[in-house]
Known about the structure:
By secondary structure, chain A is mainly alpha-helical. Chain A has helices at about 1-25, 30-55, 65-85, 90-110, 125-155, 165-195, 205-220, 230-250.
Amino acid sequence: MSQFSLLVTYLLIAAVTIYVAAFVALLAKKNTAGAMLAFLGWLISAGVMATNWIACGHPPFGSMGHVMVVLSLCFLPVYLLLRGWYNLGWLTVYFVFASGIPLVGSLFMEKEVAWRRVPALQSPWFIPHVTAYMLSYALATVAFVLTIVQLIRARLLKQAETSRYYSAGYQILRLAFPFMTFGLLSGALWAEAAWGVYWSWDSKETWSLITWTLYLAYFHSRNDSRLKPYTVTIQILAFAALITTFLLVNLLPKLASALHSYA
Amino acid sequence: MITGFIIFVLLVFFMLSGVFPVQGGMQVVIFHTPFFILLMASLVVSSLLCCWKKRGLTLRKIGFQLTHLGIVVILAGAFTGFLTAKKSEFALPISGSHEIKQIPTGDGNSSYDLNFGIAVTNFQVDFYEQTDKQSSPTPKHFQASLRINTANSSTLSHELAVNHPVEHAGWRFYLMSYDTESRRYVVLSARQDPGRNIVFAGIAMLMIGTTIMCFRKNEDNNVTV
Lengths: 263, 225
């Protein structure tokens, strides 16, 4: 077992280093080299996921260290999709940045390679529920980074033309929201099959609904002239709620959720 | 739009007050108070008004209608369940001769008549291989047979496992846990919820509606309601 953990640790360090190199290369406008490095980083992360999978014998979605790797892997496919659909190819550097962060998180988490899938997690909903949430979190992270970049450029650097960040963030969140909705509601359907109640106001459930409601408020505020000035604030609050849902509920024992104790 | 927005903000504040734990998990009681139900009712009214203002069944409007009506349908189903659902959790000995026709109510003070008898037989449990000696073994899978003696005295037998509930005559039975010490009983949860299918229909509407609304290209960004 321990050689698996060791392998995972080395691979994670390698992947993070390569992502940092890709990030630097992209900032230095070495686009081809940056893209190659980012792809290499992605392949190594895929190796981490494969190692986790072999070590535990199930899809490695159940512990926080595993899920972080899956989250990181979601960024590249999502980026390719956005580049094809919305002409958002200029976002490479943000996606590389966002891909590296969860891997750093995974590096510092307990590498429970011997994780066991308890009966409640043995359900056809397991993979779609987690995948949909990871895709939506990946997208929401990129949208958040874009909003921060826009704020820095507009407020601190006093640049005039920052609207492309605003509209790119919106396009990305529009793609994220159906996945988030599916994740939330499939969770309810799954809970009904496993525990007999589709909603029980468990703290992870409530935080996920807070996150969803805030993104809903973001979409509504965009279409109303009186609310439009608050759109950015709401998006930042929504992302804070997302981080709470994803991480803090599990990491802070005070907020601990009885039902979602695995991830 | 502004009304809907105020409702969202209130809802978020409400949930924030319901998410921080107090002694004995009592924080969730807040979601059963008349004020919360009133908030949900105003969400229903405002969603319906939005749908009325945007009425018409062009393809452009279908996603909009499905999402807003989906919320209404989910809340209607949840309210139906809130008023009429019966829920019970109880331990049942693993024995073919121990058949019960009544199960305790949620508060344990009274009981529900089932109209049919249930008994649990053939309990099985598999464990993961143990890696260290101290910890207790992790169950990999456990299941039992739920025998049902129906009202017209025929006998049915169903596999009952976690994530695989059994449905009979409007009641759904869930295998929750088992006696880890001596494996003499299992813990079952039973629920009869007339709102369940309504909620599920609303969930389907909301999933489909959100997908249509968000994946449609070249959306007119300045739609106001």
